[in-house]
Amino acid sequence: MSARRGLIGVGIGVAAAGAATAAGVATERVLRSRRRRVGTPSPPDDPELEQRGSVVVADDGVPLYVEIEEPTGAAKDPGSPRGIGGSKRGRTSWGRATVLLVHGYAHSHAIWAQQRRDITGAGYRVVCVDLRGHGRSGEGDDASYTIAQLGRDLAAVIEQTTPTGPIALVGHSMGGMALMALAEQRSQVVRDRVVGVALISTSAGGMSEVDFGLGRQLGGVVHRLGPAAVARADKRPQTFNAARLLGRNVESALVHRYSFGGPVPKDVIREVAEMIFGTRLHVIGAFLPTLIEHDREAALPVFDGIETLIVHGTRDRMTPIAHGERLARSLQGAELVVVKGAGHVLPLESPELVSAELLAFLERAERSVVDR
């Protein structure tokens, strides 16, 4: 296959893989940043990262990489720490919430660099996880790459890192879908322990209708051919690595188009590209069907009565703004924050805004629990 044809494969893979924007190109290793921005997590061989990270074992034995950070700032007192037993949510005591941050498709925990720093600085404990097949987590069978399994994985993360106390759930893209699967499977845990849910650039279903900004006809072609294109790319890593080297400018343009809505620094584009190319193509391809088939509208009522935040960009080509608006209509009392001109990867495109909205959301969640 020629490098030119390889780049054509890149284009199909980009739209098909959604957030995994140049997924038609293969790489078998995690690429490391040549220029590290302030607050960007250390590379995998950093001793400090090894000390901070730990492993959670999923129900099928897959090791999931997690990082836990204790609060660095002074906690604000949300109210008297009196027991609140007898409330309809079943909690018996109050404590500062642990915030679980869940990344999206073909990304890693590194996407939350600024948010985790700001949240721990505000006095919260933070747990970050790499989803199976992503980042530093292990791989499972291809049949295990489903949103339902991600829900079970998050249940294991909660059980093994935060067995007691209140929890706030924050999910971006596929991470938000995984939170819906958790609610579907562990509704009582959510009702008893979750004080807030933040859903960023995500959807409860209808992904088969997304045309990735290509128009209905071409978007339909991508849905039909995308998984096969990604599978073929995974079998020809040398060819597609060559295509990537010849098409670095094309790669960056594709990553920018499908990840962001406006101008962003080049090192941010490279950061996202490195997360993408650190995800093996067979993992990307295996997840595609579950993303397209995802439908958890029926699970959303589990979040009723919980402080809920929805954040969505108006130029999101992967999960268009209509998906965020639909979530807001389905979730009683949810707050919808619309970010004009922004794309899909909001934690990196608008990091200060996302941090500010999450901190305000956490304060509202604390107040609502104390009031109850």
TrEMBL record:
Protein's UniProt name: AB hydrolase-1 domain-containing protein
- Listed Gene3D superfamilies: alpha/beta hydrolase
**Residue spans crossing the bilayer:** none
The UniProt annotation puts the region (Disordered) at 33-53, 69-91
Keyword Secreted belongs to the record? no
The record's annotation in PANTHER family points to: AB HYDROLASE-1 DOMAIN-CONTAINING PROTEIN, HYDROLASE, ALPHA/BETA FOLD FAMILY PROTEIN
Q: Which organism is it from?
A: Flexivirga endophytica
Domain AB hydrolase-1, first and last residues per copy? 98-351
Q: Which SUPFAM superfamilies match?
A: alpha/beta-Hydrolases (SSF53474)
Q: A Pfam family in this protein?
A: Abhydrolase_1
Q: Which UniProt keywords apply?
A: Oxidoreductase, Peroxidase
Recall the GO molecular function terms of this protein's record.
Answer: peroxidase activity
Q: Which residues form a coiled coil?
A: none
